[in-house]
Structure formats: C-alpha cells, structure tokens
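Example 3.2
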Amino acid sequence: MFEKIVSNLNTDQAFLLHGVTGSGKTEIYLKTIEETINQGKNVILLVPEIALTPMMISRFKSRFSSMVAALHSGLSALEKYDEWRRIIRKQAKIVIGARSACFAPLENIGLIIVDECHESSYKQTTGLIYYAVDILERRAKKHQSPLVLGSATPNIESYARAHKGYYELLEIKDRALNSQMPKIEVVNMLEEFKNGNSSPFSQTLVDEINQRLTKKEQVILLINRRGFANFIICRECGYVFKCPNCDISLTYHEYSHSLKCHYCNHEEKTPHQCAKCGSKELSYMGSGTQKIEKILADTFPGAKVYRMDNDTTRKKNAHEILLDKFQKDGDILIGTQMIAKGLDFPKVTLVGIIQADANLFVPDFRAPEKTFQLIMQVSGRSGRRNIEGQVIIQAMNPEHYAIKYACESDYAGFYQHEMKIRRIARYSPFYYLINILIFGSKIRDVFYTGIELAKELRRTLKKESIVLGPAADQTFKINNRYQASVLIKYRDEEEIFKLVNEIIEKNESEFVNIVVDKYPNVG
C-alpha cells in the first residue's frame, strides 16, 4: 500500500484505503507522510472527531516534533491564530485537524489524507454548507498531490467510485500485530423483555462485563443518545414536554436537573407536574448516556466508570483528559458515537452496543448504512492486541440486514445489498441529489415558496429528473423557524446549479430563506 501511494506522490491520483479496524492504516499514513516530507512537500491530515485530534497529534509529534500544526474547534482564537501564523510562515509542514483544517493555508502540498472518510462530521451543515472531502479533492488537483481516503467502512458512494475507477482501491483484509477480529454476538432484547428483564443490559452483557472486571480488562459501551431520559410523558393525559422553539421533545439531564433541547439549547427546570392536566404522574422514558451511567454504578459498584458525550467534553482539553484517565485506571467507558472510531486502547476486550437499531427506522435513506458503519467502527475498538476481543450487540430487530452483515464483518455483502435497494429507489450513487432547504417564520410562506419552486423545477428540468416535495423536514421547527425541503434527483443535467440558482432568486423573499445543499447524501 505504502509503495503504491508513494509512487504517485506527484500526481492527483485518489486512493480509497479500505482496511479493517486495527489494520494499521495510521502506520501507513506515518510512513507516507515521512516520505512526502523528505521530498520537501507539505501534508494535510483530517480526522473526524475532535476527540481523536489530541491522540493523532501526540503520535505524529513524537515522530515529526515541531513540524506538526493542529487546527480544530477545541483551540482558543489566539491558539488558532498562532497555528495559522506558523503554517503561513512555513514553520509547520503537517496540518492535522478536523473539518475546517481543509482550508489550512498550506503551500506546496504533496499529500492529503482523510481518515475515517465516511464520517458525516466532514460536512458543515450550518451557515455556508461545504463538504471537506470535496474541498480537498479540488486542492489535490490544484497541487497535483495524491488524496488518500481511509476507512474500515467507506460510504457507498466512495466504494462505487472505486469500482468505476475514479479512485484506486487499496484493501487491507487483516489486522496488524497478528490480532484477531473480535467475536460478535447479537442479543435479541425482545426475548430479554419477555423473560422479565426490563434493564437496558442483557444478562449476557452483565456476565461478560463482570468477567472483564475480574480480569482487570476494560469495557466500552456505546449508546448513541446523550442525557438521562429521551423525554418526560404524563401518565394521565399523555402530554410530552416539548421545546417551545423547536418541534422536538426535551431531553432530561439528571446532573443539572433540567430539560434541554439538543437543537437550540433551550433549557428549563425539571417539572413536578403536567403542564396540561396538572397531574404529578410523570414518567421518564428511554435511556441516554447519563441514565446508563447511573445503572452501571448500581450494577457494578466497584467499577470506575467514565462517560464521554457532549455534556462531559465541553471544557477545553476535556476529550484528552477523559481518555487519558480511562486508559490509566478506568474500567468502563460509556459514550455516544464519538467513542466509536479511532480510539486504540490495548486493554479493551469487550464492546457492548446498547440499542444498536435505535436509528434504523428514521426517515433517511442512509439509516441502514449509518447503523452498519457505527456497529463496525465501535466493534473495532475491541481486542486490538494479543487478547481476543468480544462484541455484544443488543437490538430489538436483530434480523435486519445492516446488523446481520455487521455481525459477519461483511462489508462487500452489505454494499451489494444496499446497492440493489438504492438502484430501485433511485438514490445515490445511481442519481445525483440536490436538496433545497426553505426556512421561514410562518408555515404558509415556507410551503407556498416550496410549491412554486417545485413547479418551476419540474417545468425546467428534463423529464428524467425527479423533483420531490416540498416536504416538512424530520424536525419541522428549529429555533422558531419552520423548514421544508425540495429534493432533486438527476442524472444528466447540464448547468443544473445555474438553473437552480436562477429559480431560487425568483422565489426568495424577505419572508423565506433558501439554502442549497449539494451533499444531501452526506451528513
């Protein structure tokens, strides 16, 4: 792999490095970067999570010392200024960072690497919408430098591009250091409930955690939802406490005894009675990271448990401190998807995935792909050295194809299955997609504009193109602004963005804002 990339160092060849978790992709990055630096050129390396940035930076600084610059949202404005100044003054030759590092003011770029290239965090969804991988493809062409996209679970579009020859596919099918892929077991939580177990933990998972605690090994548990309870409901009248600004229920956070909206940050005190009927019979529904943490403390009283989510990592350097504490003396790390990728802890031999199918049935054509990727990625945290790892997947729908293929670590099988569905449904990679987002303070204005937009698009575009909508978004109201979308599916439309922009200019007004999302298949 290394030789293949190095032999293309002065070209704009794009590579898709598809290697199983723990296969040594980072070591390939290190060797390739070293060769690029020796040739007098510079490097950009993107990582998907701010949690991974300190780990990656420390590893690269140990080899390249002061040549490394970091760019991510965890830095203060002054620190960002210092790093940008170092880059402009050519004191830094390697830039490592999250999404925004794609704009690093590097000259003479000889290599661009995107680690975990499938991640949705590479897309900026607010303000100016951009996709970091798209930006870097353009920079690679300009600088005639190879682009390496690395992932254990590349998105469907990237893998399809590799099969069509747009990317050169490099595959690593075995783990490094002779370590074995973990054993994966699926637990049907419906059967657990029928057998009288209403806990979020199956008996199998409890037994395996006890074994790891006895052996002084470490455990990672993933639940992709923060907070204590998903929502509070009145048992008398069924009223659910919702955000006054958004069309979404408020999440209960026990540590602050408050209800929070995860969209607009609205916060209010926990109620003691129903706002509609006055009843005090309130029920806390669902589970989040905080609730799981509390149950863990009750179930395993002697265990040192660390929680990693947006609530525990808001302070500066919180990611680095928390991961360092877990590595040194932690027993169990519980967290959201931020713990699913890139982490390398030798003592972790058990991974548990709670509510693995929680996001399978949201109205998003990528839901199975995201579920498959998440399971595969977090499974890869287990057994990364000489001790065999184990993964326990808890799900209500264990027969779903995304879960079955993930259990078999069968990316090729999942890809073929998903491609058949996408072809029938006419989604990417068989059709290009454009999503037009319409925002306004009044529902009538939003839908009236959406209807006019859709009519004009249908008249203007070719008959083969498909225009869907306007449709209310999954979260219809955010921060007192309603939103709807018009989706375009097309295959061969010349100057489509020029046409779309002209139609938008006609329909935009003081009452509505219209935003074009060129990357609806990402995010």
